[in-house]
Amino acid sequence: MIRLSKYIADAGVCSRRQASRLIEAGLVQVNGRHGLHIDRIKNGDMVVVDGQEVMTNTEKVYFLYNKPVGVDSVCDWEDGSSIVHHLPKVENNIRVFPIGRLDKDSHGLMLLTNHGELCHKLLHPDFYHEKEYLVCVDQPLSDDFLLSMSAGVRYGGVITKPCRIQKVADQWFQIILTQGLNRQIRRMCRSLGYRVLELQRIRMVNLQLGNLMLNKHRKLTDNEVIGLLRDTGHQ
Known about the structure:
By secondary structure, the chain is of the alpha+beta class. The chain has helices at about 5-10, 15-25, 115-125, 145-150, 185-190, 220-230; strands spanning about 1-5, 30, 35, 40, 45-50, 50-55, 60-65, 95-100, 105-115, 130-135, 155, 160, 165-170, 170-175, 195-205, 205-210, 215-220. Helix content is about 20%, strand content about 30%.
């Protein structure tokens, strides 16, 4: 038996965090009654999410997607800009969902999968998996800016964790984060008097964006899947 939120995530409906929100909102039923966070699902149980029965599928699939600016990574079928309108067609009616978010005004690598437990490992704050970005700001980079960014920046009542940053051009830098606060890089820069003009995610854990064309997706190679699962503690 497994927890209800994990069952929903493993079926590829959404992440465990999103599943918990659905349960809290009363949109999940177990055997005809409202589902509870403490429910454990066993063979033969019927789970319905927002009117649709959840069918488990043990096959895990993984895609890289090069998200363009203007695509919202929130899954909302009623929003024409939502990423759900750009998800790949997968055999056997397997549904994938994006792991994490990338701002609507940012672009670059996103991981799409139906592997709910992997999503949990990548997003939970107790795990420190690297994400790398290429960033352009509105003025030349100073040494003080680079030092402050790497040491941690205070804004909105938080102090960001130390990170790695490297200047690559007069107004461009690469930065590697191990946390995923909302609009973190933009807010870090703004607190230091800089404005982000362009932000692209180029790596997540072992996965590189490479030359994947904008608004296209591709399946992960076997070696990429092996490395991803190894680096996130699944092997």
